[in-house]
Please model this.
Amino acid sequence: MMNIHVGNLSPDTTEEDLMKLFSQFGKVKSVKIVKYPSSLSKGYGFIDMPASAEAQEAIQNLKAKDLRGKTISVGEARSRN
Model:
């Protein structure tokens, strides 16, 4: 299992957009865009992919990809510990 951080998201990017984008590289377990209490996007989110090899392929292929007019950043999520 690998948790992927996606940043610099456009405010109108949806979880469905990210699911579709990352599913091109393999199975996606979950997608979560982090939001303010007002439901506005904070501009980043997380994707869980069960297979590390597929997750690495997604990271490599989606770095600096344009999504809804913004260049997204993609990398392995870091633990807060």
